[in-house]
Amino acid sequence: MRQSRIFFVIFLASITLTGCFNLDKYDKVILDKNQELSNRAQDRVGEKVEEGKQKVKEYTKQQIKEIASSLTDEAKTSIDNWLAENSLNKYGDTKDSMYIGGTPLFDEATGEARDRFEYILENNPELVEQLNLN
Fold it and tell me: pTM value?
C-alpha cells in the first residue's frame, strides 16, 4: 500500500512537472499571437487616423476667423447642439476643462479676447463641413 502511494506521488509529480514545461511553450505561442494582433490593431488604427486626416479639410486661421464671424444664429445653434451631443463644454473642450482666468478666449499676456465660435472651429475644423458652415 505504501509503495502504491509513493508511486502515485511520483507519478503526479512527473505529470505536474511535464505540464509546467509544456506551459512555457504555450505561453510563448500566446504571447507571440498577442503581439501580432496588437501590431495589426495599431496598424489598422493608424490607417483610420490617416483616412480621417485626409477627409478633414484644413483651414487657415484667417479662414476660420472669417467663417466664425459670418455664422448665422442658426449655425451657432447647430454648433451648440453638436457640443451638447458630444458632451463638451461651451468652448468645445471636455466638460472638466479648467482655464487660467476662467476662459480659453482671453489671452492675459496680450490682453486680447477671441470669439468663442472661432475658438471652437479652430479646434474642431471638421464642423465646417459636417454642419455646412461655409
Answer: 0.58
